[in-house]
Amino acid sequence: MSSKTPPTPTTPSTNFGGEPPLINHTPTSTAAKHTTDRSLQYRRKLTHLTTTLAPLLSITSGTAHPSFPSTILHYHLLTEDQLNELAHHYHQRTPSRFSLCYPLPVVGRWHHGPTGQGEAKLDDKRRRFGRFVGLRGCESPVDGDDGAEANREREQRAMELYVEGEIKRREERAWAEMTGRGKGFW
C-alpha cells in the first residue's frame, strides 16, 4: 500500500496542481442571483440580435438588395448610405407606381425629419426602414396612445396623396416633354 501525504492548504494564487482551492469562493446568494440575471439578460439580448431576418424582395426585380440585413444586429449596423440604397431598391426613396405596393410603405417620409421639416437623421431612417420590413418597435413615435389608430390612418392617407401627386406630376412632365409642350413650342 502506498501512503499519500494529504495536500497542504494553498492559496488560490499558488495552486498550480489542478486541485480545487481549499478556500470557499462560493458567491453570496444576492451576488449569484445578480450574476445569473445578467447572464440571462445577456443570452436573451444575444438571441435577439442573432435572429435571422427573411429578405424582402423587390416588386420589380424579384430580388433582395445585397445590403439587406441578415440579422437584427446587421440591421442596427446599417449606414446611412446603405439605408438610402435599400430605400431606393424598394421604391421608398423616390415615389413611383410601385411605392405603395409594399405592405408598410414609408416613401412620403423618407427624407424628412420627424416633424416633417429638415433632413431625416440616421436613427429616423433606420427606424423607418425597420417599420418598412416589419420589425416590432419601429413605429413612429406618438405622444399618447389615444388616437394611435387615427394617427396611422391619417399618415397612410397623407402618404397616398403624396405619392399620387408625385406620380401625376411626373406623368404630366413626361407628357409635356413627349408632345413638345415642355420645350416652349406651344
Note down, in words, how this protein is organized.
With 186 residues, the chain is an all-alpha fold. The chain is built from five helices and no strands. Helix 3 runs parallel beside helix 4. The longest helix has 32 residues. The radius of gyration is 29 Å and the shape is elongated. The model has no long low-confidence stretch (mean pLDDT 77).
- Summed up, the helix count is 5
How many strands, what sense, and barrel or not for the largest sheet? Answer: none
Beta-strand residue fraction: under 5%
Spatial gap, N to C terminus: 118 Å
| Shape by Cα distribution | elongated
- Residue-averaged pLDDT, rounded? 77
CA-atom Rg in angstroms: 29 Å
Oligomeric state of this protein: single chain
- H/E element sequence: HHHHH
Helix content: 40-55%
Q: Which segments are poorly predicted (pLDDT under 50) over 5 or more consecutive residues? A: none
Question: Which structural class do the helices and strands define?
Answer: mainly alpha
Number of strands: 0
What descriptors fit this protein?
186 residues; 42% helix
Q: Short summary of the structure?
A:
This protein is mainly α. The protein contains five helices and no strands.
Task: List the topology elements.
Layout: H1 29-49, H2 72-76, H3 80-89, H4 122-132, H5 148-179
Helix pairs in contact: 3-4
